[in-house]
Amino acid sequence: MKGKIKTIDLFAGCGGLMEGFEQTGYYETLACVEWEKSPCDNLTERLSTKWGYKDAVRRVIRFDIQRTEELLNGWDDDEYGVGCGLNTIIGDNRVDVIIGGPPCQAYSLAGRVRDENGMKDDYRNYL
Q: What separation, in Å, do the N-terminal and C-terminal C-alpha atoms of the chain show?
């Protein structure tokens, strides 16, 4: 094998999918995207201490995935701070695999049954 397979993790959560890919030894995590602070803190810690990424803070992106243009090109935001964007973080690397665990509540039968509108008004339908 010439080099590691390059991944990005969308809807990364606490990094369960990333963890499985990293455990194989065949993958390199270029970036993880998650919008909640605690999971981002966990991702940064795992990438740094367990997987040895010295630039883990840079690879973990805390931002709203629905704001695609800014996610790719950078942002200056009251809630998420300042970020350079996914394009800058990835740089000249080729992304081989995109992994991710998008929220399923909006389209799962269990979610639809519990919601009076059948989850038709749930923003997660559009992610």
A: 35
pLDDT of residue 113 exceeding 80: no
Identify whether 104 is a catalytic site residue.
yes
pTM for the model: 0.85
CA distances from 49 to 16, 30, 62, 84, 94 (A): 16, 16, 19, 24, 25
Collapsed DSSP state (helix, strand, coil) of residue 49: helix
Q: From the candidates 14, 40, 84, 104, which is the catalytic residue?
A: 104
In our burial notation (b when 16+ CB lie closer than 10 A, e otherwise), range 98-124 reads ebbeeeeebeeeebeeeeeeebeebee
Q: Mean pLDDT lowest for which of 42-46, 57-61, 74-78, 101-105?
A: 101-105
